[in-house]
Amino acid sequence: PLVLGIETSCDETGVGIVRGHTLLADAVASSVEEHARFGGVVPEVASRAHLEAMVPTLERACETAGITLSDVDAVAVTSGPGLAGALLVGVAAAKALALGLEKPLYGVNHLAAHVAVDQLEHGALPDPCLAMLVSGGHSSLLRVDDVTSSVTPLGATIDDAAGEAFDKVARLLGLPFPGGPHIDRAARSGSSVAIDFPRGLSSRRDLERHRFDFSFSGLKTAVARWVQAREAAGEPVPVADVAASFQEAVCDVLTRKAVDAAVSAGIEDILVGGGVAANSRLRVLTEERAARHGIRVRVPRPGLCTDNGAMVAALGSEMVARGRTPSSLDLPADSSLPVTEVLAG
Ligand code: ATP
Ligand code: MG
Ligand code: FE
């Protein structure tokens, strides 16, 4: 079946088209430039941009896939979590399509879609797998027994998300928004052991209560203090070294805990998803540490890690394949949809 997926949870308007695990089109329009000068996504600006981009992006996806809308067998859409006003645009568009085409509608969870997208690159997901979901708004370790129906959180950040930490530290270093890719690039010419930044929730005492949880706000504060001390002393800030050392602190904790979670649950596959999964150091370090325990790692290519419509279509396609009951046309946009709710009403 041909499945069309719509994504509008944040600042990317995405329309993806898949057939089974085959990606036919992945059209993305981003309003990121419009938010850059504010240093973060402005919800009202994002909603308006989605409204303007929806139809052109839909047309571009159909053109790339070489299909017409009447070929579509099912429509999937991100129903949450995300920015309420932004989600509404996608949900309204998806309902209109499903109603007009008389095809089933699947309101899916954005976070589960970040996991499901890997099927487009590496085929069917291994069941179970341990998903390290690291994005702009979330950072969790999930046990995924079935990406259409059974996602169990094992741990999560207790404060900032990993992507948020990248963005905040980039800002401290005077790098553009969103900062993740810029830190990644700057870090390549720096030393990851130049500065010993803290590893959150890694002390023996913290591990007792927060074995699979993360904390990145203390790290961000430590970087801020370090940079301010340099500036106060009138010394130049070694941006590459700070970027590399900060990135190492984030990747160290993420990979250590993900591998620990997989080993302790007897899971042999780790899947990394979400925007931060595009990070080059995270990809290498996860591989390296997992390999020591005979654990396989799957990470989608960077372009599929950040928000897009293909990931929504991929999860929708799996809903169809597994015979899940479609959502009703009353499907709400739910800004705080929990990750355990993979398919929304
Ligand atoms: P969520 O999925 O939690 O709703 P989101 O959709 O806004 O949040 P994504 O698009 O999944 O987030 O990811 C965006 C985040 O990924 C940003 O914080 C960005 O800085 C980060 N990111 C993108 N590329 C990289 C990279 N190479 N290294 C580190 N971080 C990166
Ligand atoms: Mg974005
Ligand atoms: Fe996302």
From TrEMBL:
Keywords: Acyltransferase, Cytoplasm, Iron, Metal-binding, Transferase, tRNA processing. Residues 23-313 form the Gcp-like domain. Binds 1 Fe(2+) ion per subunit. It is an enzyme of class 2 (transferase). Its EC number is 2.3.1.234. It catalyses: L-threonylcarbamoyladenylate + adenosine(37) in tRNA = N(6)-L-threonylcarbamoyladenosine(37) in tRNA + AMP + H(+). Its cofactor is Fe(2+). Substrate binds at L133, V134, S135, G136, G137, D167, G180, D184, N279. GO terms for biological process: tRNA threonylcarbamoyladenosine modification. One of its GO terms (molecular function) is tRNA N(6)-L-threonylcarbamoyladenine synthase activity. GO terms for cellular component: cytoplasm. Fe cation binds at H110, H114, D307. The keyword Acyltransferase applies. It comes from the Bacteria. Pfam families: TsaD. It is found in: Cytoplasm. Belongs to the KAE1 / TsaD family. Required for the formation of a threonylcarbamoyl group on adenosine at position 37 (t(6)A37) in tRNAs that read codons beginning with adenine. Is involved in the transfer of the threonylcarbamoyl moiety of threonylcarbamoyl-AMP (TC-AMP) to the N6 group of A37, together with TsaE and TsaB. TsaD likely plays a direct catalytic role in this reaction. This is tRNA N6-adenosine threonylcarbamoyltransferase. It comes from Nocardioides aurantiacus. The gene is tsaD.
